[in-house]
Amino acid sequence: MDRVRVGVLISGRGSNLEALMAAARAPDYPAEIVLVISNVAGAKGLDLATRAGIPTRVISHKDFPDRAAFDAALDTALREAGATLVCLAGFMRLLGEKFAEDWRDRVLNIHPSLLPAFPGLDTHRKVLEAGVKISGCTVHIVRPELDDGPILVQAAVPVAEGDTPESLAARILELEPQCYPLALRLLASGQVRIQGRRASLAAASAGTGLVNPAGPKRP
Ligand code: GAR
């Protein structure tokens, strides 16, 4: 089986990276991680990748005069590694329009809210301030606007009365490692059809975009 070559972009801890690496160890997983890039030197995720034998690079946005030059360096590194898909896994930089268009439909991102609600930074504080009763996480195909694009997989968690941004983040982080490997598997195995703002799944996997083990049953 030819596996799709994936580059993962991180900025920090790397728990989503770890989940993707674990999934990719299965022989029947349709993707392999060929490069991990961090824009932050010393990011913990870099150690996880090194220990797993995956090549890493640090490409700091601070070393470039503008976003376009930084994006071009990312693009070059990914192409040199032969990557054809990209996973943003806690990558805390906005990619420019050119990168998003050059890699159209080939970049995934995970965000800790039920998009399109609560994009951007400080997500959990905004969720708590808004008083919503459910939050979660979303894996979506990247478009140039922040945390925007066709949704592949979502998982929901209840917001509890005494939640803090930290407790809510921790509860959501428990589900993220289930969502990202599923989304990458769907995309890498060619099961995703994108039409306008919508991503739909091929008939055989219809309905699998909802990860919600303890949640409501699907209709
Ligand atoms: C995750 O919670 C992810 O959803 C979030 O950053 C964290 C990264 O954790 N991403 C964003 O907020 C992107 N807008 P990790 O480094 O342990 O995977």
Verbal overview:
With 219 residues, this protein is of the alpha/beta class. The chain folds into 2 domains: 1-103, Formyl transferase, N-terminal domain (Rossmann fold, 3-Layer(aba) Sandwich); 111-212, Rossmann fold, CATH 3.40.50.170. Helix content is 32%, strand content 23%. The chain has 6 helices and 9 strands; from the N terminus they run βαβαβαβαβαββαββ. It has helices at residues 15-24, 44-51, 67-80, 97-102, 123-130, 165-188; strands at 4-10, 31-38, 56-58, 85-88, 107-111, 134-141, 151-158, 192-195, 198-201. The longest helix has 24 residues, at 165-188. The protein is globular and about 50 Å long. It starts with a strand and ends in an 18-residue tail after the last strand. Mean pLDDT is 93; it is low at 213-219. Residues 10, 12-16, 45, 89-90, 110-112, 137, 147, 173, 176 line the site of glycinamide ribonucleotide.
CATH class of the largest domain: Alpha Beta
For the record, the count of structural domains works out to 2
Order of helices and strands: EHEHEHEHEHEEHEE
Uncertain spans: 213-219
Instruction: Name the shape in a single word.
Output: globular
Structural class: alpha/beta
The strand count comes to 9
> How big is the Rg?
17 Å
CATH superfamily of the largest domain: Formyl transferase, N-terminal domain
CATH architecture call of the largest domain: 3-Layer(aba) Sandwich
